[in-house]
Amino acid sequence: MRIPYAPAEPANPTPENEAIYERIRERRKPRPLIPLDLALLHNPEVADGYNKLVGAIRSKVSVSQALAELAICYVAVLNGATYEWTSHAPLALKAGASRAALEAVLKGNVADESVLSEDERLVLALTEQSTRNIKIDDQLFEKVKARFNDQEIVELMITVSGYNMVSRFLVGLDVTESNGKEMVMPPE
């Protein structure tokens, strides 16, 4: 990483900071704090807000987890965030995304009708436009509105937006020293 990681225990062990560390540990259970946490914990309040937001994105949404994980993986591909890809590609498979769909995301073949469902193609087009252009064109947005309800659209947009934030943080600080490393498919 381009700066040292924060310590795994609070440098300033106030009750507030200890509570923040505990909330992050609780979300990560049974795993320990990960490098992303240790980068964010340079500012415990920011780490706490991040933890709450990303925790909600990951576990408090109604949209298909497989679709959300494919979107997150595509954000990683578009932004060159190898650590994000390495973390989320196995989660996409675990959530039910097919290996063929995940491989299409990795290769950028996100319009492949022979591999990707209509929903997957819509979500990936939304992900690409949001990541590259920020603005979603009206034609695509109308297609998304015809397929997903308002809550699902909000959930998809916050997932894509949130993980764009994550990838920019990961790449900007080179968390886990992954910049420039090849993204590969998870083992079978």
Automatic annotation (TrEMBL):
Q: Which residues form a coiled coil?
A: none
Q: Which Gene3D superfamilies match?
A: AhpD-like (1.20.1290.10)
Tell me the GO molecular function terms: peroxiredoxin activity
Spell out the SUPFAM superfamilies in the cross-references.
Answer: AhpD-like (SSF69118)
By its UniProt entry, which InterPro entries does this protein fall under?
A: AhpD-like, CMD-like
- What residues does the Carboxymuconolactone decarboxylase-like domain cover? 44-111
Name it.
Carboxymuconolactone decarboxylase-like domain-containing protein
Q: Which domain of life is it from?
A: Eukaryota
Which Pfam families does the record match to this protein? CMD
